Amino acid sequence: MYDVHPPDQEFSALHFIRLAQQAIDDIHKRGKLPIVVGGTGFYLRALTTSIDTIVVPPNPILRKTLYAKSREALGRQLQHVDRQRWGAMNDSDRKNPRRLIRAIEVAMSEPHIPSMRTSYDVFWVGLTASLAVLKGRIARRVSGRFDKAATEVRDGLPPILGADPLLSFLRGESTKEEALKEWAQAEYQYAKRQMTWFCKEKAIHWFDAQNTDYQKEVEVLVRGWYT
Questions:
Q1: What is the extent of the structural domain holding 162?
Q2: Residue 128 pairs with which residues in a beta bridge?
Q3: Tens digits of per-residue pLDDT, 1-51?
C-alpha cells in the first residue's frame, strides 16, 4: 500500500480500511500471513475493531461554518446536538477544535448510515527502543530521504511531516542543516505520540528492538499463535 492515493487529495481512515482489506484479502488468497505495519494507531484500531463514526463522510459545508467558531462555541453546540457524546469526551478532546468539529459532524449525520464491521484474528507486536536510539534512527532516515523528498514536495500539500522544512529550504529561507534538524524533530515528536497511543493498547506484545535476539523471540511467539 505504497503510493495508493494522491497526496493532495483527502485520505481518511475509511479510505485506508477499504484499501487495506483488499490487500489483506489478496494476501490470504495466496496462502500468506498479512502483516500490517504502522503507523497511525487510529487507523490500525479502525481496521481491527469496529468504529462506527469512520463511515460518516466529511460535510464541507458544515465544516466551513464550524471552522469560523471558537472552541467554546463548538463545545456548546456539541452539547446541544449530542450531550452524551460531549460527556464521553476527555479534557484533551474538548480543547481540540478539530475533534469537536468532527464530533458535531458525526452527531448531525444521517442516522441510517451503516456501521463498518471487521472480523480479523489479530496478533499485536510492538517494538521499543531507548529515546536516544530512536532519535538517531529518525535522524538517519530523514537525512537519507532529504534529497529525493526535496524534488517531490510542493505548495498546497496537506500537513505532511517534513513538507514545511523542505519548502523553507527550497525557498532559501533556511539551510539544509536547519531543515534536516526541524524535520527530524517533527518526526521524533510524532514517534513519541505514537508510542503514547500504543502503550495504552493492552493486547500488544512488546519487544526491545535493541535486544539482539528480539527477532527470534517475535518469531517464536507469532509462530505459536499462527499455527
A1: 131-184
A2: 208
A3: 888 888 777 777 778 888 999 999 999 999 999 999 987 888 888 888 766
